Each structure stands twice: as C-alpha cells, then as structure tokens.
Amino acid sequence: MLTPEEPPPMGYRELPSSLGIALSEMENSETGGRGARRARLRLLLRNKRKEWEDYRSNVTPFELKAYLSL
After folding, report:
1. Which of 8, 15, 23, 30 sits between 20 and 30 A of 43, alpha carbons compared?
2. Is-contact 50 23, C-beta < 8 A?
C-alpha cells in the first residue's frame, strides 16, 4: 500500500470510489468492442445502473440511527 507521500507507480490509477463512478468510466472507455460484445456491455451496464439506483434508494441502519433522531 502506498503512503500519501509516495508517488504512484507509472500507469497507476486510483480505483473508482463508487459503483456509479465505475460505470461511468466503463461507459466512456474504448474497450467496449463491437457487435455482440458491445451489446453484452450495454446489457451489463444497464443492469448495474439498476443495481446502483436500488442501492442508493435504500436507507441504511447507519442513516436511520445517525439522522432519524435529528
């Protein structure tokens, strides 16, 4: 694991911090291919976007405890 003081290795990129950001990066990447491969990618992205929206629309126990008492 790198410390904040260490420079990242060449070609290193930090991982996306959420599924939503990862999906956006995947949509904008050029690794989608063509034809059937592209169709499968669109299907995967659609399903994962639904999963992300379902996740974001749920109130977690942490949120209930932290904010319900306000």
Report:
1. 15
2. no
Is 27 inside a domain boundary?
Answer: no
CA 34 remoteness from chain centre: 23
Report how far apart, in Å, the C-alpha atoms of 46 and of each of 5, 38, 39, 64, 66 are.
39, 12, 11, 29, 32
3-class secondary structure, 11: coil
* pTM of the predicted structure, to 2 decimals: 0.61
Q: What is the pLDDT of residue 33?
A: 65
Report if residue 24 sits inside a domain.
Answer: no
Domain hosting residue 40, numbered range: 34-70
Number of domains making up the chain: 1
